[in-house]
Amino acid sequence: MTEFAQARVPDWVSPPGETIADLLEEQGWAQREFAQRMDYSPKHVNQLIKGKVPLTEETALRLERVLGGNARFWLEREAQYREALTRQQELKALATQASLLQELPVGEMVRLGWIRRFSNKGQQVAECLAFFGVASVDAWRERYATGAAAFRSSPTFERKGPAVGAWFRQAERLAARIECEPFDRKRFEAALEHARALTSESSPEAFVPPLVEQCGRAGVAVVFVEAPRGCPVSGAARWLSPDKALIALSLRHKSNDHLWFSFFHEAAHLLLHGKRVAFLDMEGELDGKEEREADTFAENHLIPPASWRELTGSSLSPAAVVQFARKIGIAPGIVVGRMQKEGLLQWHQMNDLKVRYAWEREAG
């Protein structure tokens, strides 16, 4: 997908008639003489100079003969004027819908580099609509704010819909830059096995590129998108087309156990739950049959049931956890996270075995 920068609109616009008037002054012609040369009425020439009538192809050809230059110059001058005039009118209309700026986390979107800041409210609304790839506030509301277009509804989505929608839109934008081969289920399942081995890598520089590459070969774009402050989303899965899927991860808890569990949870949605519904996973709302199935899928892929039973029947010391993790080929922090979730450890225990992450902005 090609992205275009939103044009900055000047406060004033100049009709091509001003250029005509300048040339008349250079020639020393009055409007009446110019009208005779153009074979137009003086009234029409006056309206043309004031920009009240359009400069047509026929007029451009006449100007070419009378004033010089070429018809293309005059037509482009007219097109630029009409475009600028239309933009000004549109921005005035968009300024009346500035309530959108109160719904969206505009400050966060600017901080994260998703959009630019404008002092003009109409331009800021236009910038936000361009970010979402929609033409109007109504289209934005239907596709991204209410969740009716794709996502399963939830109480949190109703409250945080605009912020979550902005996060997901940025995920879509990043996914559009990733070239993927057509989706292949067997390749994706193989990619998940490779991903499981990558959990032992502590550095994102070591695991992110191969994860993105291997999933891309299977038709799945994997993106990491920082969520706006106060946005409770941890991950999302959606089919962008019949042949390309998206997994988006927010790194919400900034630890390797949550990161990898979220990845396999979203992968489960793609493999188990069809292509019609998109899934947004938010803090405290993993209810429903599909979510339980995705949880089970993630748990069993990271720690097979037989291995889990072996762990629960042994010592729970840090050394034992590390040894167990090495034996089954995953990171110790993932084992700790599972043990905490199952109540075998309290939430504050063995957290030093987890790997912590930070976005580059925070790390710097």
UniProtKB/TrEMBL annotation:
Q: Name one GO molecular function term.
A: DNA binding
Q: Which InterPro entries match?
A: Cro/C1-type_HTH, IrrE_HExxH, Lambda_DNA-bd_dom_sf, Rad_response_metalloprotease
The record places domain HTH cro/C1-type at 20-74
- Report the Pfam families cross-referenced here: HTH_3, Peptidase_M78
Please give the CDD domains that the UniProt record associates with this protein: HTH_XRE
Family label = Belongs to the short-chain fatty acyl-CoA assimilation regulator (ScfR) family.
Q: What is this protein called?
A: XRE family transcriptional regulator
> Which species expresses this protein natively?
Thioalkalivibrio paradoxus ARh 1
